[in-house]
Amino acid sequence: MSRPSLVRTIRHIPFSRQCSRQFPAGGRRALHTSPKFFSNEDKTFRGQLYESTARRIQAQREAEARFASMTPTSEFARQSAFTFAIVFSCALAYWFGSMKPDTVSPLSTAPLSSMDPKGPKHNTSPTNLEACWTDMVSIVGKEHVSTEESDLQVHSGSDWSSYTTKDNERPFMIVSPSTTEEVSKIMKACHTRNVPVTGYSGGTSLEGHFSATRGGICVDFSRMDKIVKLHKDDLDVIVQPALGWELLNEELGKEGLFFPPDPGPGAMIGGMVGTGCSGTNAYRYGTMRDWVLSLTVVLADGTVIKTRQRPRKSSAGYDLTRMFIGSEGTLGLVTEATLKITVKPKHESVAVTSFGTIREAAECVSRVVGEGVPIAAVEILDDVQMRCINESGFTSRIWKEAPTLFFKFSGTKSAVQESVGLVQTLAKSKGSKSFAFAKDADEAAELWSARKEALWTVMAKRRDESDHVWTTDVAVPISRLPDIIEETKDDMASSGLLAAMVGHVGDGNFHAILLFNDKERKTAEEVVHRMVKRAVEMEGTVTGEHGVGLIKRDYLAHEMGESTVDTMRKLKQAFDPLCLLNCDKIVRIQKPKAGEVQPW
């Protein structure tokens, strides 16, 4: 048989038979042990074939032996070990997870006792702030980021603020964006780096609203000062936050329109929204809350929201617009406001009447309001305030230094004349000593200017640079106005401080302006404390329009109750979990130190 035939024959014989036919018992082992098993001829072909076959048999038997060694018991053990490893890993992961409690409280309120006693965990390390500076430069450009000492000081407090800024309460840098998109990027960067942020527009607020209590950065909106769009037919206007209300009215006046809220000179829309301000026109036109239709707001994480569209009324969803009004920059940064506007009155006039006592003046206000006489505004200035106006020389005339009421009238010429006559009669019945009214627009502006210059005329009386000014306000139901004004006036007079009184008394709101030095601070604090306490006890409010800031926050619980303040704190947590935005304002987020809160 030839070699190819032999190969074909072997291929068709089963492998086991090949082995049994070719090798005797024990012959397979001989393949590996006996080099003489094959003849010389076989080693050339057949021997190589059989040798290869023997290696295959040996490899198969070794594999069978290994498989046989894996008994059912060892396989079960292997599977059990694998299962145990999985279960143990899950248990270990659960244990580590349980070590960090859930950060979302199931409570509907956030009591101060539940807050971290160490305060929010901001990262204001030099390294992080320097890295944040790089971020800001990339967003707004180097020319719009300032670390100049003079800028930092201006953006930390003011001479007219009731709050004295501490040395460590200043921002690391001032950043000036120009668009909502840039503000969003700024907040995203600060949110990522956990850097606190304080907003700033006009800087005219009075209760420590923009003091950087936690450092960080100050977002100055001075580059966002434009009228975006006027909808004359709809009587609304879209504006940016650093637009002043005076400039807005100057532009609206060209169209025969005006925006009623009129706080102090220099106030800007962003701050007016933040404090929910009002002004001398509040008696007739209402406060800032009544004149804002919609807001564009950047939240703490950089999210941009618009609270609603432009209709005059809407019952769609939560009223987020009013949520942000009065929030003092603690819930978000306002970058645009849609404001209602109205037609400018055809005719205006002003009347001034003086009285022998402050109570007589307050009773006259109650009588005019009670009779329903249509007046646009009514302001009270006490004798001290009138003397300050005279001595300052800020107005062109000399005033009677007695408690004085300033009335503003608007409407048709005949209606104004009728209202002036009614007020004159009522004032006389309450002991009026003098009564004068403006005969034209220029004279009306001159008379009213005395009221708008009140704060600055008192500040002009400072003895030296060590004197501070404390300007505060409260409001009560109109029937209690004569009582609180008389009691507060007597208290201020007996304090020995230079203290003046002014107010938008048509809606029960009045202000006290006190001058004091460091030695007199305790006296000033006690006068203000008693004034606020009186207002609360008369079912009034601790602030009618200035806002809460740092000065009034500890009085809120006395006016509204602890649970209401705790609810406000919960809202703060919901909008700003890291407490980045204007930290410490309105509600405390950290327990006060001993002696920090004045006993009630």
TrEMBL record:
One of its GO terms (cellular component) is mitochondrion. Pfam families: FAD-oxidase_C, FAD_binding_4. Its EC number is 1.1.2.4. GO terms for molecular function: D-lactate dehydrogenase (cytochrome) activity; D-lactate dehydrogenase (NAD+) activity; FAD binding. Keywords: FAD, Flavoprotein, Oxidoreductase. One of its GO terms (biological process) is lactate catabolic process. It comes from the Eukaryota. Residues 167-344 form the FAD-binding PCMH-type domain. PROSITE patterns: FAD_PCMH (PS51387). Belongs to the FAD-binding oxidoreductase/transferase type 4 family. This is D-lactate dehydrogenase (cytochrome). It comes from Alectoria fallacina.
